[in-house]
């Protein structure tokens, strides 16, 4: 018997004694000394009242002792189930034609635990094991396409999969994304150029297994290598391990995973079910993936006058914000997304002074697109807005496009400039852009080259602009043909993969300021981008030498997004009501379904405002958006002597624009032109482990229970029908008057 | 209501009311009619109104059988094929199950 229950028992005994004492003594009220009958009755009544009050007080005290004095209830549920604390599921996503992801039963999937040792061990799970269904625990090295496909085919015996994610990246590259990302919504369709469609020329992501786009009908959860996982392994060793060739006996260790997804079939079905009016319980079952794009311009644009702007010629500098992985809400996206937009942010900062002192003739528009992983949500929305005159500029205003793709891994400091071979035949502006890039990179530590053969553009937001107009443009990447990123859109694409390492024993603030090698390399890229943008916008070549990106800035931004967002610099840049968004973990770049801008979007917006804007001396009440500029109030730093932060108003041209696929505005849920990705809703996501008994024992218990019920019913019936025989007493009952 | 104490004419009117009421798309009235008056119509010794009561009970039973067949067929078809009907199935349903087609 453990300490807790004996304490409870002792408390209960003390309480009972206390209550018994007091109620037996009654209450001594001094006024009841009068002898006359009426008053004695009153005294007795008074003493009853007094006693009941005292009894009530005692019961309250008892309750306090038993429940509130820290003893607690010893519930049976806690003795049976061990809940898992850190559970990351894979969720269901739907598009116009398919559903992908995982689904569990409404009441969770229960399976007997089995730790998979190798691919041959799968035979136990799929064929020879005696106690299906099994819940398979995989090490991350075994989380491969062949094993998952075998499990998927044998899914009547598989209740679920739990993947143990290691703390360090695996040595082998693996990507759960498809090998040809966004092949249906880019510019290379059969109409544009059939020889280049469907990655006929270059397979961009050769390590892609396509696991993220498969459909599983059992839940798949990710667990970290921590205490909970040790408990699970221990449970497996104690109960489920077949020792010396004998089969493991019941009770066995089992796990139950809940991740029931409400949406099914495809986007059209789930949007229709969202909107049904006359059903008894209208419920939303799915939401479209959406967030916000961040954009800014070096010369402010009138945001209320939408549509074509006369005389405005804009160089569009684009980058991608988002990423994804197989599991929900884990998307570090270091090389896939962060490297690109950090380089562009640093370039924007480097251009601030030059564009203000000697403004070039053309405007430069920085655009950070969200949702690009899922069929170019952000860029297709911006192109759609431009076509429908719903954006500050028009497609005719765009002079050229420079996109910064994956630039974090450039080995031998080489950058590759990709351009579209089909439109290159027709214009010479592309050639000028490439020459300018090469001249901008001269004198720096990085060399820029073209791939040297006719190759289509890699998956990039620029492709959506090309679908609308033949605009000249270049995409800067660090790979010549296939991606060098071996963890494209994977949960391992994190700071460790980019080799961002700090010397040991640094405090977080020191780490924030320490300039890593990756940051230095990225700074070079940012300088090239900034200089190119300046010349492309028509600026003077003589000023190029003064345009340099700041490595301190780059390393701080990288630290903030890839290591820890809750740092002192980010805290200065945002308003006080967003401070809760900062965490001690890397930022998650999954696009999500929120109606409000997500955390990374807001961080990039405030960063862009800080890096391209200026402080104005305006009070907080007057600090709100105008036609030409956006005004943002940020909380600033605390001066050395006090702890109160001194806020200030930041004036910039950084704004947000909605990144929701046009398919949802047009209600074309089976559209082939636009992204139709939606995410299902769910009720609970949790997991727990417990010991499970054999089926025979369960049936026996049920049978015994039913038998007892039937026996008691029969007995009652017999006794009631023979009642006069059984209960007749020899004599008549006494006349009782009531 | 205990039919033992009800006079025969009242039994006949009751039976007729339930029979006629069942035509208003209320097959349960026919079910009640059949169950309640079965003993009266077929197992009691003959009395004047029993012939008419028998007629009503028989017709109620026929109507009930028809309704049961129609409803069972429709329910089977709907449960089996609702998922494949797509949009039409959704618009015909009051409660659509979550997570399954």
From TrEMBL, chain A:
It comes from the Eukaryota. Residues 89-263 form the Nicastrin small lobe domain. This is Nicastrin. The keyword Acyltransferase does not apply. One of its GO terms (biological process) is Notch receptor processing. Its main location: membrane. It is found in: Membrane. Gene3D superfamilies: Zn peptidases. It comes from Cyclopterus lumpus (Lumpsucker). Belongs to the nicastrin family.
From TrEMBL, chain B:
It holds the Pfam family PEN-2. It is found in: Golgi apparatus, Golgi stack membrane. Signal peptide: none annotated. GO terms for biological process: developmental pigmentation; melanocyte migration; negative regulation of neuron apoptotic process; Notch receptor processing; Notch signaling pathway. One of its GO terms (cellular component) is Golgi cisterna membrane. The chain crosses the membrane at residues 20-38, 59-77. It is a multi-pass membrane protein. Keywords: Membrane, Notch signaling pathway, Transmembrane, Transmembrane helix. It comes from the Eukaryota. Belongs to the PEN-2 family. This is Gamma-secretase subunit PEN-2.
């Amino acid at each position: 018997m453990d300490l807790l229950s004996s304490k409870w028992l002792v408390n209960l005994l003390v309480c009972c004694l206390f209550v018994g004492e007091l109620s037996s003594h009654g209450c001594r009220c001094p006024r009841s000394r009068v002898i006359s009958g009426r008053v004695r009755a009153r005294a007795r009544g008074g003493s009853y009242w007094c006693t009941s009050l005292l009894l009530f007080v005692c019961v309250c005290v008892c309750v306090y002792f038993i429940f509130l004095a820290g003893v607690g209830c010893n519930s049976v549920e806690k003795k049976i189930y061990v809940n898992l604390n850190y559970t990351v599921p894979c969720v269901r996503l739907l598009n116009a034609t398919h559903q992908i992801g995982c689904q569990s039963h409404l009441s969770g999937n229960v399976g007997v635990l089995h730790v998979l040792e190798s691919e041959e061990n799968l035979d136990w799970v799929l064929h020879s094991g005696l106690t299906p269904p099994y819940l398979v625990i995989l090490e991350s090295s075994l989380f491969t396409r062949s094993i998952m496909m075998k499990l998927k085919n044998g899914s009547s015996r598989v209740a679920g999969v739990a993947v143990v994610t290691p703390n360090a990246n695996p040595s082998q590259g693996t990507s759960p994304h498809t090998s040809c990302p966004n092949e249906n919504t880019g510019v290379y369709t059969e109409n544009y150029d059939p020889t280049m469609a469907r990655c006929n020329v270059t397979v961009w992501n050769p390590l892609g297994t396509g696991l993220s786009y498969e459909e599983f009908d059992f839940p798949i959860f990710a667990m970290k290598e921590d205490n909970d996982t040790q408990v699970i392994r221990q449970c497996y060793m104690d109960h489920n391990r077949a020792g010396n060739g004998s089969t493991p006996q019941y009770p066995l260790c089992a796990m139950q995973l809940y991740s029931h997804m409400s949406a099914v079939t495809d986007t059209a079905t789930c949007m229709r079910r969202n909107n049904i009016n006359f059903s008894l319980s209208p419920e939303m079952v799915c939401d479209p993936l959406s967030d916000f794009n961040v954009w800014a311009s070096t010369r402010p644009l009138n945001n209320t006058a939408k549509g074509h702007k006369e005389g405005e010629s804009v160089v569009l500098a684009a980058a991608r914000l988002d990423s994804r992985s197989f599991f929900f809400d884990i998307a570090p996206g270091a090389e896939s997304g962060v490297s690109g937009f950090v380089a562009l942010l640093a370039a924007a900062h480097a251009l601030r002074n030059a564009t203000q002192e000697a403004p070039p003739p053309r405007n430069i528009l920085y655009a950070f697109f969200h949702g690009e992983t899922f069929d170019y949500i952000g860029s297709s929305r911006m192109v759609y807005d431009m076509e429908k005159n719903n954006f500050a500029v028009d497609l005719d205003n765009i002079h050229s496009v420079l996109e910064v793709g994956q630039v974090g891994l450039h080995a031998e400091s080489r950058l590759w400039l990709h351009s579209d071979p089909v439109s290159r035949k027709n214009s010479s502006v592309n050639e000028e852009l490439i020459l300018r890039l090469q001249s901008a990179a001269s004198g720096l530590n990085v060399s820029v080259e073209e791939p040297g053969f006719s190759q289509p553009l890699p998956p990039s937001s620029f492709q959506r602009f090309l679908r609308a107009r033949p605009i000249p443009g270049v995409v800067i990447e660090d790979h010549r043909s296939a991606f060098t990123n071996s963890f494209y859109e994977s949960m391992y694409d994190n700071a460790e993969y980019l080799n961002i390492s700090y010397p040991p024993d640094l405090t977080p603030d020191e780490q924030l300021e320490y300039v890593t090698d990756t940051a230095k390399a990225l700074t070079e890229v940012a300088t090239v981008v900034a200089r190119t943008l300046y010349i492309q916008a028509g600026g003077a070549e003589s000023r190029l030498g003064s345009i340099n990106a700041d490595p301190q800035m780059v390393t701080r931004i990288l630290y903030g997004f890839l290591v820890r967002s809750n740092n002192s610099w980010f805290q200065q840049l945002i308003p006080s009501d967003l401070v809760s968004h900062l965490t001690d973990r890397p930022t998650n770049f999954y696009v999500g379904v929120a109606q409000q801008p997500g955390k990374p979007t807001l961080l990039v917006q405030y960063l862009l405002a800080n890096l391209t804007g200026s402080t104005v001396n305006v009070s907080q009440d007057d600090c709100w958006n105008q036609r030409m500029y956006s005004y943002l109030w940020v909380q600033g730093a605390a001066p050395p002597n006090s702890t109160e932060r001194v806020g200030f108003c930041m004036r910039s041209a950084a704004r947000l624009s909605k990144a929701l696929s046009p398919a949802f505005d047009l209600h074309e849920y089976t559209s082939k032109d636009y992204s139709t990705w939606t995410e299902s809703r769910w009720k609970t996501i949790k997991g727990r482990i417990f010991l499970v008994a054999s089926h025979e024992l369960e049936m026996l218990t049920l049978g015994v229970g039913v038998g007892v019920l039937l026996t008691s019913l029969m007995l009652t019936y017999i006794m009631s029908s023979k009642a006069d025989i059984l209960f007749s007493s020899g004599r008549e009952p006494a006349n009782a008057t009531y | 209501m205990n039919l033992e104490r009800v006079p025969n004419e009242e039994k006949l009117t009751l039976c007729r009311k339930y029979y006629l009421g069942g035509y208003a798309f209320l097959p349960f009235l026919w079910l009640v009619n059949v169950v309640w008056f079965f003993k009266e119509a077929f197992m009691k010794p003959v009395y004047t109104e029993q012939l008419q009561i028998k007629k009503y009970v028989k017709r109620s039973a026929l109507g009930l059988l028809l309704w049961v067949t129609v409803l069972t067929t429709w329910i089977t078809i709907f449960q089996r094929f609702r998922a494949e009907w797509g949009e039409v199935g959704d618009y015909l349903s009051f409660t659509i199950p979550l997570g399954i087609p």
